[in-house]
Design goal:
Elements lengths: L13 H12 L3 H8 L3 H9 L6 H11 L3 H4 L3 H14 L10 H14 L2 H17 L3 H18 L2 H17 L3 H10 L13 H14 L4 H14 L3 H17 L3 H14 L5 H17 L3 H13 L6 H14 L4 H15 L7 H7 L1
Helix pairs in contact: 6-8, 7-8, 8-9, 9-10, 10-11, 10-12, 12-13, 13-14, 14-15, 14-16, 15-16, 16-17, 17-18, 18-19, 18-20
Length: 359
């Protein structure tokens, strides 16, 4: 999925949206005009003069692009939500200092239109950005601002979703008891009496509560199994199955752990490289516990091969695991690690696992 830049964030009028939709399918406006049998001058008029072409033109455009006109021409609010969803689905790619400009641009647009719900969603994105770049104080600040907005509006779905994030931040900050207490307090929002709670929010509630309780293997597994009922995407299903595998690993039921790791790999798409790497790493740990060094080494190397240059923290975490599995080839591992360090050091944000691996 394409990562947005600051210059990509702008509200387009109907003519600009039609123009963009044409160029997504055709190499040029001239090619589209020739195929449609429309003079280029007439086409330019349709794109730049309201009401942006006749009804017949819009129908022909819809047929040629094989899209409903309502999907081509979006109002301001729909465009803003599209930008928000595009960033949300690829949020872990936004790790650079300049990425904050993308969020600030979107935030200013929401404020100028007076769209409070969308503003809260952007603030949540900013809090997630700071979470993934290891700046928890700012994560707390922005998620609490988002919570205040939706609390005043009375949107319980977003209120539950944002508080789930807040609980996760507390857990990441070592405040596990506080996170669990917050989760217990959120139970009132998953009552049948509360309408409008989305499947996605219910999935996040059970999945993240399971992660926080990962040391209580049976209880965590029950939560992950509930999460599966609400999982909608391949990544959600695959990640949940992998976590169920981890609960069985914790109980030393290694055959069941491997079964669920394999099931998770079957659910992921080929493009879900980072998620697939997690499952291979988990399998490596399990095979290592079973004393099968060959399979353990095979799987940890598969995990490493799937990582991108900017997955630095995960890379060194896996290297640390590789050293535990294959401690007879430390020189080769060290050379591999050193090569990766020099090619990707600009992405390094948190040196915890790099230091562990080097040690």
């Amino acid at each position: 999925m394409q990562k947005l830049k600051k210059e990509d964030i702008r509200i387009l009028n109907a003519g600009e949206q039609m123009h963009r939709a044409v160029l997504e399918k055709y190499n040029s406006i001239e090619e589209f005009a020739e195929t449609a049998g429309i003079r280029i001058n007439s086409l330019n008029v349709y794109f730049h003069c309201k009401p942006y072409g006749s009804k017949n033109f819009r129908l022909r455009l819809s047929n040629m692009l094989n899209r409903n006109i309502e999907d081509i021409i979006l109002d301001d609010r729909q465009q803003i939500n599209n930008y928000i969803n595009c960033i949300r689905q690829n949020i872990q790619a936004y790790k650079q200092h300049e990425d904050i400009e993308v969020f600030n641009c979107l935030k200013q647009i929401c404020q100028s239109y007076g769209y409070d719900i969308e503003l809260s969603k952007v603030l949540r994105l900013v809090s997630t950005y700071y979470y993934f770049t290891h700046r928890l104080i700012l994560s707390f600040e922005y998620i609490n601002s988002a919570i205040e907005i939706v609390k005043n509006i009375g949107n319980y779905d977003l209120l539950l979703g944002y508080n789930i994030d807040l609980a996760m931040y507390h857990a990441s900050n070592g405040e596990v008891s506080k996170a669990k207490h917050l989760y217990k307090g959120l139970e009132k929002y998953i009552s049948p009496d509360i309408k409008g709670i989305s499947k996605r929010t219910l999935f996040n509630y059970y999945y993240r509560f399971g992660v926080i309780n990962n040391s209580d293997f049976k209880f965590a597994r029950q939560l992950f199994e509930k999460a599966l009922k609400y999982a909608e995407t391949e990544i959600e299903i695959g990640g949940t199955l992998s976590n169920i595998g981890l609960t069985y690993h914790g109980e030393k039921k290694y055959d069941l752990a491997l079964k669920y790791y394999n099931q998770s790999l079957e659910k992921y798409n080929q493009k879900d490289k980072l998620q697939r790497s997690y499952s291979y790493n988990n399998m490596a740990d399990t095979y290592n516990e079973l004393g099968n060094k060959k399979e353990a080494k095979k799987n940890i190397n598969l995990a490493l091969e799937l990582l991108e240059d900017n997955d630095t923290e995960t890379y060194y975490y896996y290297i640390h695991n590789l050293i535990k599995i294959d401690n007879e080839n430390l020189e080769d591992i060290y050379n591999k690690m050193l090569s990766h360090f020099y090619s990707s050091r600009k992405f390094i944000k948190n040196k915890t696992y790099e230091i562990k691996a080097i040690d």
